[in-house]
Task: structure prediction
Amino acid sequence: MTTAALIVAAGRGTRAGGDLPKQYARLADRTVLALTVEAFGNLAEIEHIQVVIHPEDGALYASALALSACRILAPVHGGATRQLSVLNGLEALENANKGITEVLIHDAARPFVQPDTVRQVIAALKTHPGALAAIPLADTLKRAGPAGLVAETVPRAGLWRAQTPQGFRLGDILAAHRKAAATGRDDFTDDASIAEWAGIPVAIVEDTPLNFKITTPLDLRMADKLISAPNLSGWLPATGTGFDVHRFTDGDHVMLGGLKIPHTQGVDAHSDGDVVLHALTDALLGALGDGDIGQHFPPSNPKWKGAASYIFLQDAVARVASRGGRITNADVTVLCEAPKIGPHRDAMKTKIAEIMGLDPTRVGIKATTTEGLGFTGRREGIAAMASIMLLLPHNKPAA
Ligand code: MG
Result:
């Protein structure tokens, strides 16, 4: 079984808003088409992807898929109707001579197709010549009569909404499409109806409503909400770590997490020597692949003498924002024998959350001694380690 996905992207529909056909609308800086292609490209079961595009969309297609890592065949041009576009795509798959035995035909405007749905359609093709994703009707159906009045209630038992993908054996569905075209039928609205007309049995695979077709401006807004949710595709997680040390010297306080904490010593530093904020700054810069604190705020520059370290951290936070990124959480460990961190933990969480624009529940503060060992154990200095997680938009590399 060699399976190809045929993605139909030749439509002109601009009802979703904007000047471009909906498959080229942007969601989180990528196009609907790129998301749809990647949904199939991410599945090992799909060996080839063929996209059918409108003859005028070559440049749009090239830029839409420039960022996609998927292996896809050169696009083919569609015809006057969806049906004829699918026929062109099927002919291209046949002519590709890649031994393709099964084809899953899918609308480009359904970027949220779920891996399970695709796999179930493929599985159904092992026992049926055709299979389509569909959703059982939940609403009561009314047939409208004259003057906008209800004429009757239509029983919904056994009724399903046809979605895509719709899978077939390539030879079967190509023959059915050729026959439909040859007999002048060009009004089929999906491929399962051509299969039915040609006598090919089609099994139903229950689909999820997430796999909706982007048609109207509201659909596009809903799609944007979905793609912007950090647990869905469109974001790349990036982690960063930071570490900082300052030597104790004469003084009466240390700055930690933006707080002035009384102590029997101070720290030797060019800035205010806040190891917590320095470690956090480096962790953010690390997640961005954007150098380190010494590079952005060199100690050789007198401008930073005695500087409050929240300035460095806020600069790093702004760098995240300028990449369109989001900070998920921050976690810090302070290493010292003294001062005690516990009494200041909550205030430090609040202060760091404020500097970074995070909810305090997203900030972790921990402290440990080093059991009298090493420079911290000998009370020669204080150290802090920090970890950060960011979400960066998929198309903006972290370097
Ligand atoms: Mg430092």
